[in-house]
Design goal:
Elements lengths: L5 H7 L14 H20 L11 H15 L1 H7 L26 H7 L4 H4 L11 H6 L8 E2 L7 H13 L4 E3 L11 E4 L2 E8 L3 E2 L5 E2 L2 E5 L3 E3 L3 H10 L4 E3 L18 E10 L4 H5 L4 E7 L3 H4 L14 E10 L3 H11 L9 E2 L5 E2 L4 E3 L2 H12 L6 E4 L4 E4 L2
Antiparallel strand pairs: 1-8, 2-9, 3-4, 3-9, 4-7, 5-6, 7-8, 10-11, 10-12, 11-15, 13-14, 16-17
Protein name: T5orf172 domain protein
Pfam families: MUG113
Organism: Jannaschia seosinensis
Length: 397
């Protein structure tokens, strides 16, 4: 009787030989395996595979895209089959696989198909740059994972107020630049979410010799993250839609000189009329026109005596405030709405005898206008209202 082989004996027992785990043979394969381990870790922690969706965390969305590409590429499925203990690669839409053969894809093309940028590819020239899963657990990530924010109810009103400020024009969403300051109290937009820097830890010098600090960042979807300031800066810079949300004072929002490198976008001017109209003459000290211009203030009312909007009379400039990186039209509308209870109800006739109702004149003391500007600078204008009958600003109940 011929001697039976080990395979024959295993077959009689209903057992299959255990396939030896395929080891990575190139930096490319090592990166693919490391990327898949990230997905496995996410699945283990959350009890499900990463999913797509605008309401999902940026990292979950990244993992979901990466998993789709791993499922679609034959070489990746074969490479990862032995380590896919969670059966993640088997879940795929029928007909969705890209049967492109491995030899048709070079390293760069394969990595690009997995959503890996050129900057990341450059770090894969040596295997020593790829950390194992154990090593990644031992070293804190530069960008911390987002977690549910336990006290989000304390921050929700801040997000509501910021959205209202944006709608009113008191805040602007501007493209993020590296020179932009990341500090507590600032709002940003990253990955489609509004982010609020609630706290910054003590600054330190990182391995590159740059100053950095650990932040507590709250997101408007109710999550938070303790990430590094430079990690947030990098995310905002790389996100094509990354934005900084200006403070109501936009740095030097209202100053008589442009500071901080911002762009001079116009001037708020406050005028006092020299009209001899009885109503105006009787209340001249408290009747003011509040407007915004993108040019020189003096040119705006060079022909005031001929324009009904200036009450067909000369005017005196009693205050000006320079705007920095601000939508002047939106801000003008905001101020007009705020002082609307004190809008001057007056009708005059233009040179053709047509009645005109100027809308930019208000019964408001000059010091109250200055107070409104200060409230804008302190980010609290929305918490106040103007009482025309009292000629003052009061805090809302």
């Amino acid at each position: 009787m011929p001697e039976r082989s080990d395979l024959d004996i295993l077959s009689d027992l209903g057992l299959e030989p255990i396939e030896k785990k395929k080891a990575a043979t190139s930096p490319r394969e090592a990166r693919i395996i490391a990327g898949f381990e990230d997905i496995q870790k996410f699945t283990e922690e959350h009890g499900r595979a990463p999913q797509h969706g605008a309401d999902r965390d940026i990292f979950e969305r990244l993992y979901a895209v990466r998993l789709d590409r791993l499922r679609d590429l034959v070489e990746c499925r074969e490479l990862l089959a032995a380590v896919d203990t969670q059966n993640l690669l088997a879940v795929s839409k029928p007909g969705s696989h890209d049967e492109t053969q491995p030899q048709d894809l070079d390293d760069d093309a394969l990595l690009a198909s997995l959503g890996i940028s050129g900057e990341e590819q450059s770090s894969l020239t040596e295997l020593k740059h790829v950390r194992t899963q154990a090593e990644r657990r031992a070293v804190p990530d530069d960008v911390a994972s987002r977690q549910p924010c336990p006290d989000f109810d304390q921050f929700a009103p801040l997000f509501d107020a910021a959205r209202a400020d944006i709608a009113d024009g008191a805040r602007q969403t501007l493209k993020f630049e590296r020179k932009s300051e990341i500090e507590p109290g600032r709002f940003f937009i990253v990955d489609g979410l509004m982010a609020y820097v609630a706290h910054a830890g003590d600054p330190f010098t990182n391995e590159s010799g740059n100053r950095d600090s650990r932040l507590r960042v709250i997101f408007d979807n109710g999550t938070e993250s303790n990430l590094l300031a430079r990690s947030l800066q990098k995310a905002l810079t790389q996100d094509p839609a990354g934005r900084r949300i200006t403070d109501p004072d936009a740095g030097p929002l209202f100053n008589n000189a442009v500071e901080g490198g911002g762009s001079d976008t116009g001037t708020i001017y406050v005028l006092r009329s020299q009209s001899d109209h009885p109503l105006v003459a009787e209340n001249r000290a408290v009747i003011h026109k509040i407007g915004v211009t993108g040019g020189q203030v003096e040119r705006r009312f060079a022909n005031a005596e001929k324009e009904p909007t200036f009450l067909l009379a000369g005017v005196e400039v009693v205050a000006t405030f320079t705007l920095i990186d601000i939508n002047r039209v939106a801000l003008e509308n905001l101020l007009h709405r705020f002082f609307a209870p004190g809008r001057l109800d007056i009708t005059i006739q233009d040179r053709f005898g047509t009645p005109v109702h100027p809308r930019e004149w208000f019964i408001v003391p000059l010091d109250v206008i200055h107070e409104a500007v200060e409230l804008l600078q302190s980010k609290t204008l929305h918490l106040h209202e103007y009482r025309a009958d009292q000629g003052k600003i009061i805090q809302r109940a």
